[in-house]
Amino acid sequence: MITYNSTFDLNHTIFRFVMILNKIESDQIDFERLRILDFYLAHPFEISNFRFGTLDFDRQMKSLFPRKINPYQNLRNPKKLFIRMNPYQQIAIKRLASYGLIEIDFTNKGSVTVKDKNSLSTIIQNMEINLSVSEQNALNVACTYFFFMSYYGNNGLKSRSGLIEFKYDAQQS
After folding, report:
1. Which residues pair with 105 in a beta bridge?
2. Whole-number Å distance between alpha carbons of 113 and 106
3. Which of 45, 43, 49, 60 is nearest to 144 (CA)?
4. How far apart are CA 172 and CA 124, in angstroms?
5. Mean pLDDT for each 10-residue chunk of the chain (173 residues)?
6. Of 26, 16, 30, 20, nearest to 105 (Cα)?
7. Across the beta sheet with 111-114, what order do the strands follow?
8. Residue 84: what pLDDT?
9. What residues pair up with 102 in beta bridges, in sequence order?
C-alpha cells in the first residue's frame, strides 16, 4: 500500500514556508524557530500537546485545539518526526533562496530574511488555497503567539514545544 505524507513532501514544505514567511510581521526569523512553526503547521493537532501558559489568553489559544483522539493522527514520537523533517526543511529553505525570495545567513543563528514580501503574497494569491479551520488556526497561532514567544529558557518555545533540547542553552538576554 502506498501512502502519502505531506510532511515529507518537498513542495508542500515549500508551500508551508511561504505561508509562514508571508504571515509573520517581521521580515526576519531564525531558521530553528521557522522549523518549529512548520512542524505545527504540518501537524496542527499536535498544538494540543503544546505547553501553554496559565494566563487567560494562553487558555484561549489552547481552546482552539481540543484534544481529539484520532488514531490516524497519533504521533508516537513527535520529537523524532521533527528531526526527520529537518532534511526536507533544509532543502526547502535553500530552494526558496535559489528562487531569490529569501536570504539565508547561517553565520548569524541561521537567520532567514524575506527579500520581497510582495512576491510571497503574489504566490499565495495565485494558488487556490483551501485551508481547513484547524490549519487556519494553526497558521494564526504559529505566526503570532509562537512567533513572538521567547525562544530560550524554561518558558521559551523550545521548552514548551518539547521538540528541541533547551536545558543546555546559554542564557539569552
Report:
1. 111
2. 11
3. 60
4. 35
5. 84 94 92 94 88 81 75 77 94 94 82 90 84 87 90 85 75 54
6. 30
7. 28-30, 111-114, 102-105
8. 93
9. 114
